[in-house]
Amino acid sequence: VYMERGFLVGFVDSQEQGEALVAAAQQVAGLRSLDTYLPVSPPQSTTESDFALKGEIKTRVALDRSLVSSRYTIEVLNGEVVLLGVVMSEDEREEVEDVVDGTGGVAGVKNFLLVVEEPYASIRPHLR
After folding, report:
1. Alpha carbon distance 56, 62 (integer Å)
2. Residue 16 pLDDT > 70, yes or no?
3. Please, what is the end-to-end C-alpha distance for the chain in angstroms?
4. 48 to 51, 77, 79, 93: CA distances (angstroms)
5. Is pLDDT larger for residue 121 or for residue 26?
6. Mean pLDDT, residues 90-98
7. Residue ranges with strand state E in the chain
8. Where are the beta strands (DSSP E) in 25-106?
9. Which candidate, 55, 57, 105, places its Cα nearest to that of 78?
10. Which pLDDT score is estimated for 123?
11. Residue 65 zone, left/alpha/beta (φ > 0; ψ -120 to 50; rest)
12. Average pLDDT over residues 4-8
């Protein structure tokens, strides 16, 4: 949850399981919105290749001096990269996506990065 916005990300065993998770999350008091990426688990494990891709992406983001990698969570599910966290501007949001999308082996990017809203920026000034 970032700024009262919820995110469900991960493999599910079936479409029905995903729907049940979404229904449960929608009951959480105080959420302004809920975004999901809940693909059904592939028949064969992609854990090893996803782990390697995640490491490469984290390295690329960390090496880009204009990005603050500690504000992002990066998940990789069957080659699809999911970005979660808070950024200071739309430009930063797009730049993170560009760095990730430019990494070999990325099948796609789900960019759930949020631009920090004013009430939260004043509460957490160290995000700047």
Report:
1. 10
2. yes
3. 19
4. 5, 11, 11, 27
5. 26
6. 94
7. 5-9, 33-37, 72-77, 80-87, 108-115
8. 33-37, 72-77, 80-87
9. 105
10. 57
11. alpha
12. 95
Q: Cα dist. 26→22, 53, 71, 108 in Å?
A: 6, 31, 25, 26
Phi, psi for residue 28 in degrees, rounded to 5: -70, 120
Assigned token pair, 50: 């996803």
Q: How far apart are CA 128 and CA 123, in angstroms?
A: 11
β partners of residue 81:
76, 109
Give the model's pLDDT for residue 127. 47
- Give CA separation, 10 vs 33, 38, 43, 55, 121, in Å: 18, 5, 15, 18, 29
pLDDT tens, residue by residue, 20-59 = 999 999 999 999 999 999 999 998 989 999 999 999 999 9
